[in-house]
Design the sequence.
DNA sequence: TCCTTAGTGTGATAAATATCACTTGATAAT
DNA sequence: ATTATCAAGTGATATTTATCACACTAAGGA
């Protein structure tokens, strides 16, 4: 189960067996079933999650109760309510299974210990964070320059696998359009 | 001039005088005038910039020539075309002065040397990147949950200083609405 | 001083998108 | 087998926003 983690990390920094063994001591595996919550709004955010298999949605709920998908997360991705995680405050979003999901859990304390104990891992997380930022910026640019149809096409192109696994109503929520509008875009 | 940098870094990690002297050797100060370009689309991105004084806009131009403000950057902020900077590829955006601006330039090579030579600085950049990512995610949530008027009000609230310094047409571009629509929102 | 340009506001109209209401087909639960 | 539930499509209409056209003001350059 941790093998996927090693492969994932070694795409960025090489690890010796000893180093990887050290890394592993910081993670706890856990399994969740479809519809279960990994993070609930208003509760503490204990972990950042590395996803081994499955699919999660990060959901923001506004004052009127409307839910929007902030992001999806699947195999080899990291996910959490990062503001709450890094500042150790209460969750403002929820993280929920779209499919049965296996994750490796990393507590904030272990995250800090891991970075302090092995500079390579701080380097790894820096790289991840940089490219996470770039991906968000791309999504903003997509918003700024494209209409609903174009954004949908870009999503199809970028994550073709996602479309097979997620109901269109959730894709609509991620794209920031109503499900009816999305339904009328396809042809 | 580097004092602002020290203060900025020490909000996250403390530095000895020797350490800060080491840090300084990696930065080069530069001055630009209003309308000058720090980065031009299609050219190499030599630096990440720390802004001492002034105001910049990061601009994306689409195929039809329409320009959109991806972000503004003012005192104490870092800015660059980060995808191009980190991957050492050509710029897909341009970075231009809205006001006369003084910056400290950090080349990619010096960025790596700085992180490798002083773990505190890798820690610093990790923290910056994490919160940069969170800020982008907030902007996405603002898009997903709010209409033009609400997004404008959120911007006014979050960066009241910006509104004094930037023409409304640029704010409109940043918010992803036409300047005419923005003009009709205020009352 | 005169002229140009940038910034802004506003009316009229078109286009994009949301909302509400209803239907259908597929799947899951009992 | 029957009934709920979910996902998806679609028509009618309302709302939001873009686009085009024009006017006005202030600031800067020749």
Sequence:
């Amino acid at each position: 189960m941790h093998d996927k983690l090693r492969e994932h990390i070694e795409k960025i920094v090489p690890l010796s067996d000893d180093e990887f063994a050290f890394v592993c001591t910081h993670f706890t595996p856990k399994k969740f079933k479809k519809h279960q919550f990994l993070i609930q709004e208003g509760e503490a955010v204990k972990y950042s999650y590395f996803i081994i298999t499955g699919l999660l949605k990060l959901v923001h709920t506004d004052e009127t109760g409307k839910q929007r998908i902030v992001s999806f997360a699947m195999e080899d991705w990291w996910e959490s309510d990062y503001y709450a995680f890094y500042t150790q405050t209460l969750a403002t979003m929820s993280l929920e299974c779209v499919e049965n999901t296996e994750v490796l859990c990393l507590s904030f304390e272990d995250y800090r210990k891991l970075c302090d104990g092995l500079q390579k891992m701080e380097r790894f997380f820096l790289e991840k964070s940089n490219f996470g930022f770039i991906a968000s910026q791309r999504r903003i640019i997509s918003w700024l320059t494209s209409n609903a149809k174009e954004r949908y096409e870009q999503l199809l192109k970028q994550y073709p696998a996602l479309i097979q696994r997620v109901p269109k109503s959730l894709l609509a929520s991620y794209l920031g359009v109503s499900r009816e509008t999305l339904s009328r875009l396809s042809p």
